[in-house]
Specification:
- The protein is mainly α.
- The chain has 3 helices and no strands.
- α1 packs parallel to α3.
- The longest helix is centred in the C-terminal third of the chain and has 56 residues.
Length: about 140
């Protein structure tokens, strides 16, 4: 016959992991509904909310794992530590993706700014030679 403490520990591990999984899936589902409800219109970037939920979830799971270790529930503690590690890994992936998008956008903005400056400089050179007169918008003689 199995020890009652072992069964309670195992049941707690399954219950806590299941609740956290359901909460995370529910959050992602709600974010998906927001995007679906917009029907092609612009939706505010959910990255900040993802980072908040994942960092809070991993921190709470780690704190729960520590508390379960102190109460001598090794299976539930290990399960919570694994969930905390997985949420932290997911947090790193989301943060890395957001950082990559920001860097890509900033590089493109810099490139476009350089191209505009080069174009304006080339127009000044052409107008200085006198072949084509380029006047600023709204200029009157």
């Amino acid at each position: 016959m199995m020890n009652m403490e072992f069964l309670a520990d195992l049941a707690l591990a399954v219950l806590l992991s299941g609740l956290e999984t359901v909460a995370l899936v529910g959050f992602w589902f709600a974010e998906g509904l927001k995007q679906w409800g917009a029907q092609g219109q612009a939706v505010p970037d959910p990255t900040g909310r993802y980072l908040l939920v994942l960092s809070t979830g991993s921190g709470c799971s780690a704190a729960t794992a520590y508390g379960l270790t102190r109460t001598d529930l090794p299976i539930a503690s290990t399960a919570q530590a694994v969930v905390a590690a997985l949420l932290a890994l997911l947090l790193l992936l989301v943060a890395g993706t957001a950082c990559g998008k920001r860097l890509r956008r900033d590089r493109q903005r810099r490139r476009l700014r350089r191209e505009r400056l080069r174009w304006h400089e080339s127009q000044r050179e052409v107008s200085a030679r006198g072949s084509v007169s380029v006047r600023p918008r709204g200029w009157r003689p």
